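Let us practice reading a record.
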Amino acid sequence: CGLPIVATRHSGIPEIVVDGVNGCLVAEHDVEAMAARMAELARAPQRWSDLGRAGRALVEQKFGHDAAIARYGRLVQE
């Protein structure tokens, strides 16, 4: 959607959210840190588009058509 992400360091989330690059990561169950990062982003709307674009680029790189075709190609070769 082109928006920054605020999430926790849980399971596979850090694979797609890179702290400070396309969003913000905090420790699980750390409500204060989550609120602080959300407030920080709310005060800095000029960062939203850069973070959102970086997130979109990472998703396209890892999960876009080209990446899927490459993965299927490797599976077929194996």
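A brief commentary: The first helix runs from residue 13 to 16.
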